[in-house]
Automatic annotation (TrEMBL):
Pfam families: EF-hand_7, NUCB1_N
Membrane topology, record value: Peripheral membrane protein
Classification via SMART domains: EFh
Bias-annotated ranges (Low complexity): 439-451
Protein's UniProt name: Nucleobindin 2a
Compartment list: Cytoplasm; Golgi apparatus; Membrane; Secreted
SUPFAM superfamilies, alphabetized: EF-hand (SSF47473)
Gene Ontology molecular function: calcium ion binding; DNA binding; guanyl-nucleotide exchange factor activity
Bias (Polar residues): 384-395, 429-438
Gene expressing this chain: NUCB2
Length: 467
């Protein structure tokens, strides 16, 4: 999203101009173009305000503009009265049909917010937690979440005030972001120089100075909002004789939506010719981010000089009054961005200290994570070793002992006495594999006896000394 699209509107612009903003084709000679006959006018393209509730805001304004009574009040109410909430009270006089549509819009918006909140809860791992929609919706100040069903005066008042405050703060944030962009760019250039040897550093510095010089070598830039600047647009963009310059005609030519005001986008379009003198997207030395910042600086300057009631719109009356001032006829020279550094040396020092601290914190986190990884790997190796030992023990416990000697089957009718011996409960298939010549020291050997002979236990033969 470009800067131009973010800062094109605010406050009353949101209420009056939001649906009819359109870039001004200032390079077009309007006096020489024949408009096609019987061609239906196309609605101007939508321009994003940069607000997260942009669509809701547009749709509310769109419906309110359909009510003739509210539309008249909208165009006739002073900006201060709008900020004070007087316009919001006119909602009570809006037609029932429009109010019904606004009610439905609000219900859809509340439903959208609840869906987003639930999705955020799911992403953050809060699936098991009950979602308190009422508590979470409090952060969205542009609508009354306590009443999710009907669009009331308080809702319109909240919407106006929120849009006003958010856009004003956005202006400040834009300046800070551009300053950070410039400091980051300079910091990266300095860091890159540190990686070069003396000869490479010298060449890089020479190239940098050459690019700065080429960028600064451009035609004179007219002071934004001055007679000279408008005359140049009158001549080159409108194709008219600069000697015939007429402020009122000029205003009507460039009031693209014909509402009697210059909004911010229409003003910015008037500065294109001046910006083309400084910036060319094909040139290495020209930064297009800086070009948009320059455009906005010009617009802000004109608004500060001409917009007397501070509604961020320039009316025809305000414009004509400004053309009679000395600043319009004899302006001072305009200092471009290269003549005005966006940051101070102190801000740059603090910025680099902040970057150094961030780098240190990241390195510390990386070191801690590496230690955790090493410890996990050590524990995993220990577990793997224990697993291998356990598997080895199980294998040894289940191993079958190797038989000694050859296997000979027992004679027919011979009983295997080991089956009746205490503690000798073994599987039958293992018993049959025990060799016949393996002596059981706990049981005396049995001999085959002649038929009818009683089986007497054999007495062990004692040494002679015992006898």
């Amino acid at each position: 999203m470009s800067w131009r699209r973010i800062f094109h509107t605010s406050c009353l612009v949101l209420l009056v101009q939001l649906l009819c903003l359109e870039a001004v084709p200032i390079s077009l000679d309007k006096t020489k173009v024949n408009q096609p006959e019987d061609k239906a006018s196309e609605p101007p393209p939508s321009v994003d305000t940069g607000l997260h509730y942009d669509r809701y805001l547009r749709e509310v304004i769109d419906f309110l503009e359909k009510d003739q009574h509210f539309k008249e009040k909208l165009h006739n109410t002073d900006m201060e009265d709008i900020k004070m909430g007087k316009l919001a009270k006119e909602l009570d006089f809006v037609s029932h049909h429009v109010r019904t549509q606004l009610d439905e819009l609000k219900r859809q918006e509340v439903s959208r917010l609840r869906t987003l909140i639930k999705a955020k809860q799911d992403i953050e791992g809060g699936n098991d937690m009950a979602v308190d929609h009422q508590a979470l919706l409090k952060q969205f100040e542009y609508l009354n979440h306590m009443n999710p069903h009907t669009f009331e005066v308080e809702d319109l008042d909240r919407l106006i005030k929120s849009a006003t405050n958010d856009l004003e703060n956005y202006d400040k944030e834009r300046h800070e972001e551009f300053k950070k962009y410039e400091m980051t760019k300079d910091h990266e250039r300095r860091e890159q120089l540190k990686t070069l040897d003396d000869e490479g550093r010298m060449k890089e510095e020479e190239h940098y100075e050459e690019m700065k010089k080429k960028h600064a070598d451009h035609p004179k830039v007219n002071h934004p909002g001055s007679q000279n600047q408008f005359k140049e647009v009158w001549e080159e963009a409108d194709g008219l004789d600069p000697e015939d310059f007429d402020p009122k005609t000029f205003f009507k030519l460039h009031d693209s939506n014909g509402d009697g005001f210059f909004d911010e986008q229409e003003l910015e379009a008037l500065f294109t010719k001046e910006l083309e003198k400084i910036y060319d997207p094909t040139n290495e030395e020209d930064d297009m981010v800086e070009m948009e910042e320059e455009r906005l600086r010009m617009r802000e300057h004109v608004m500060n000089e001409v917009d007397t009631n501070k509604d961020r719109l320039v009316s025809l009356e305000e414009f004509l009054t400004a053309t009679k001032k000395k600043e319009f006829l004899e302006p001072d020279s305009w200092e471009t961005l290269e003549q005005n550094q966006a940051y101070t040396d102190e801000e740059m020092r603090e910025f680099e200290e902040h970057l150094a601290q961030q780098e240190e914190d990241l390195n510390q986190k990386a070191s801690d994570l590496q230690k955790q990884r090493d410890e996990l790997e050590r524990q995993q190796e220990q577990l793997n070793s224990q697993k291998v030992e356990l598997q080895q023990v199980q294998i040894e416990g289940n191993a079958i002992p190797e038989p000694r000697g050859e296997y000979h089957p027992l004679p027919p009718g011979h009983k295997d006495m080991s089956q009746n011996h205490p503690g000798m409960k073994q599987d039958s298939h293992l018993q049959n594999q025990i060799p016949h010549n393996t002596q059981d020291l706990s049981q005396p050997q049995l001999q085959d006896l002649p038929p009818g002979h009683q089986n007497q236990p054999t007495q062990p033969q004692l040494p002679d000394e015992t006898l």
